Amino acid sequence: MITSAMAHDLLLLAAVPLVGFVSGFANTLAGSGSLITLPLLIVLGLPANVANGTNRVGILVQCVVSVATFSRRGALPRASVPRILAPSVLGAAVGAELAADLDETLLRRTIGALMLVMLAVVLLRPRRWLESHASGRPANAWVQAALFFAIGAYGGFIQAGVGIFLLAGLVLGAGYELVGGNAVKNLIVLVFTIAALAVFVANDQVRWGLGALLAAGSAAGAWTAAHFAVARGAPFVRAVLIAILILSAAALLGDFRLV
User: Fold this and answer.
1) Under 8 Å between Cβ of 226 and 69
2) How do residues 38-81 score in pLDDT, each as one tens digit?
3) CA torsion sign, 144 to 168 to 94 to 188?
4) 29: which residues sit within 8 A by CB, 6+ positions away?
5) Residue in 230, 108, 130 with CA at minimum distance from that of residue 177
6) How far is CA 123 from CA 7, 115, 234, 241, in A?
7) Residues of the chain with pLDDT under 50
8) Which of 27, 77, 228, 231 is most buried per CB count within 10 Å?
9) What letters, b where the CB count within 10 A reaches 16 and e where it falls short, cover 142-151?
């Protein structure tokens, strides 16, 4: 006989791949998908640090799918990627090691405020987000290295919203156009998620069953989003980015729990 408590738990488990789909779609085009996956994993009974580690399984799989899709569609630029990738991965490893010392309230409000700033930039400077790489003005190599180390450290630390920070860095700091920047963003997240996940695995902070359910939905969402991005171009990606920035800022500045 199935009790009401069992039915509730089964319903939550069934929601994991569905939430994973939404997260994979959002993360591929912008970021902040972890704002919905982390709370669900915690509701399912995982401690915050284990939820943080388990969440990386879905992120890893969705990045593999999105990068492969962008690459097959010819939308993955490879120029200058190594000098962006290296500091991001190093930062992610450092951030994952520091994840246990999270000041949740301060971090949530700081990220929410930064997302409002980015929302203003996206709305007030629309052409900068739609122009080609050739017309961009990338920062010098040292500034880029510091910028992407900091973003990588944040990504290793908590993950939620890192895609938006990476996308802003790639478009505004490294001169990528929006669709190509999205493809590179997913490649960077893929590599530094491997580094961060290794730390969580070493600390026994991953629950593979829930991670697999999350990954199944995330992969489908990532595949769908990558096809939409290539087919519809920068205006579509920018519209999704604006929507996600608004929702994320509202969640982070309200009572929504990040972790």
Assistant:
1) yes
2) 888 888 888 878 888 899 999 999 999 999 999 998 888 877 67
3) negative
4) 182, 225, 228, 229, 237, 240, 241, 244
5) 130
6) 45, 12, 14, 10
7) 132-136, 256-259
8) 27
9) eebbebbbbb
Entry pTM = 0.77
CA distances from 203 to 53, 66, 80, 199 (A): 9, 28, 34, 6
Q: Which residue's structure tokens are 């996206």?
A: 122
| Both tokens assigned to 21 | 């789909």
**Please, what is the end-to-end C-alpha distance for the chain in angstroms?**
34
Distance CA 123, CA 114 (A): 14
> Using an 8 Å Cβ cutoff, are 140 and 78 in contact?
no
